[in-house]
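Question thread 4412

I'm putting together a teaching handout and wanted feedback from people who do this every day. The idea is simple: show students a protein as raw sequence, then show them the structure tokens that encode its fold, then repeat with a second protein so they can compare. Below is the first pair exactly as I plan to print it.
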Amino acid sequence: MGPVGWAATEAGRPARGAAGSARETLRAAGRDAWRTPAGAPQVTDVRELEASAARTLGRTTTVPSAAPAPEISLLADKNGQAGVSRSGTPGHPVLRGRHATAAAPHRGEEPLGKRQPEGPPPAPAVQRIRLRYTKRGRLRFTSHRDFQRAFERALRRSEVPMAYSAGFTPHPKVSYANAAPTGTGSEAEFLEIALTEARDPGTLCKLLDASMPDGLDVIDAVEARTSGLADRLTASVWEMRLDGVAVQDAEKAVAAFLGAETVEVQRRAKNGIRTFDARAAVVGLEALDPQPDRSGDRPCAILRLVVRHVTPAVRPDDVLSGLRAVADLTPPVPAAVTRLAQGLFDEESGTVTDPLAPDREAAPAVSTADPAAAAAAPEGAGSA
């Protein structure tokens, strides 16, 4: 390199240093803009920094740029939250805080609509069947969710043409009504299913009962011809077996409970301890002698309870708490509780009626004049 080249190199050294400083300033400004937290003051536009650096360098040096520099600024969303955006590259995501969302559609583009499930809509329901089932033996300790899983498996095993709900997660249309608490047995639980094809209720009852585990038994089925099954479940008949309690002690406690105007009990709820009256919902309570299968040296008393379905619900264990409060009746072992009936309470007779009876009464009568209909009718269907 000759003297002239050396002099030119030394003369351009300050300009090259100024250009490197300008580029580093641009990079630092970009990094600071991306790291700026929400609510910080607006970051200076990078193009202003570029113009300032170019003026500083004078006529000898310019800042090379193969593409327009991205514009970095602070934006605020609809909630007033500030965020950093980069608009130099089309379609670049917009960052708000530490999360990125899709860029807004360009002018003339339609926004994305509501997502719709793929495939055809589910088939409509053409028939509704109401079932009565039981919880017996050790299966009284199963929860209501456990029974739901077992029943849906039975529907699949029996190949029942179930109607399904629409949406991204279809589920069979099954309506449960007033399930018994976990730990109590029951002879009168009810539900309703919707079918896409008509089926005979008696045949469907046998198929489902064969597919259910022992203790969860489907014992009755009728076609729903009236509305308001849940509205007809207004009272329940319970049986409470008190091992280790003499019948005379149980009778005294029952008399004290029925003679009280109010019996306040407490129950632990989600929001804490709740106090309510357990006497107003009880319409019948009596002490009975033990059944022959439990006779022996150990005393045992049977309580028959008829209770209305009110809010808050009065359960058999609430009545036992009331007996302990008014008469200090405390069984040495937990009581075995079973629901015997559930339905509409008859004020005149004081009994609980069958909630499926209106559907049976509304069923069309089979005419014996038609030989084909008489042959299809089950044996004993015409007898009352």
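The second pair follows. I'd like the answer to focus on this one:
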Amino acid sequence: MIYVEDPGVLTFELRDDNGTIIESSTQNVVAGSQRVTLNFDLPVGTDYELGLDNPSQIGVFRNNAGATYPYNFGNLASITGSTANSSGYYYFYYDIEMAANLTPNIVSICDGNSVTVGSNTYTTTGIYYDTLNASNFCDSIIYTNLTVNQPFVPSIATNPFDGKICLGDAAVITASTGYQSYSWDNGMTGQIITVSPTADQLYTLTTIDINGCDAVATVMIYVDSCNTNISDEGTHFSIYPNPSSSLVYFEFNNSNNNVERISVINVLGEEIFRVNDISVAENITSIDFSNYPKGVYLVKIATKSGDINRKLIIE
């Protein structure tokens, strides 16, 4: 607690026995009494000084009689005197509070979460000091060492490598190692799962890493009828160029009236393009992918003989 005549700026100083400044804290003060928080770390030793850089500039009050030294802080420290040449003087610092070295409250959270201490909320890595005021004026200092962890997003591989299987076959999906838990949206658990979907299926994985943070990754498994007789029935179908970065052509001969429609589906299972009006002749249809995200798309050709799936890569 300090008592100030005029508002202004004060620099509070902790000095060693040679007068060398160990720590300082510059603060704006107002006229009257107020409590200042210094957070000085006082090393073990003797003959330290607690002072101000220019106390007379704004009139910081002190006692000129009645001081009786030492003033003890339990077994932590003692104020043994002042630098005044006259006895009984006490300078500037009243109702001082000291604490033994604080054991930090070590907290680890995941990005997007927060920690609240008193009236403050923290969301970034750092060391924080919070003073909690009590009704009996015995304040508590909370020292929080906060680490905010970024989640580790898993990678996913498939076998077959392109995620494309024939109807009735199985695909093996393998996530990267190093996670505490693996939860798939189909109810399966574990790093490696085997699936046999009957239609194109998007699988979503949620992992918990060593820091307790969760992350999500997805993978698409494509199911092809693997009907090899489609060309024999007079239907020819081709996609070019593949891979592509913009315009893609779908060319097919539907002289046998076998093709009913063509759809393009993204990895989320959303249909982004469809051709329903298929003529009984040579057909060339194009779509510009310039404004679509890069990645793998499914081209589904619905025929009277069954569905045919083809993979399209946009890069």
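Top answer:
Good format. For the second protein you could add a caption like this: The chain has four domains: 2-91, 105-149, 156-224, 236-314. The two ends are 67 Å apart (CA to CA).
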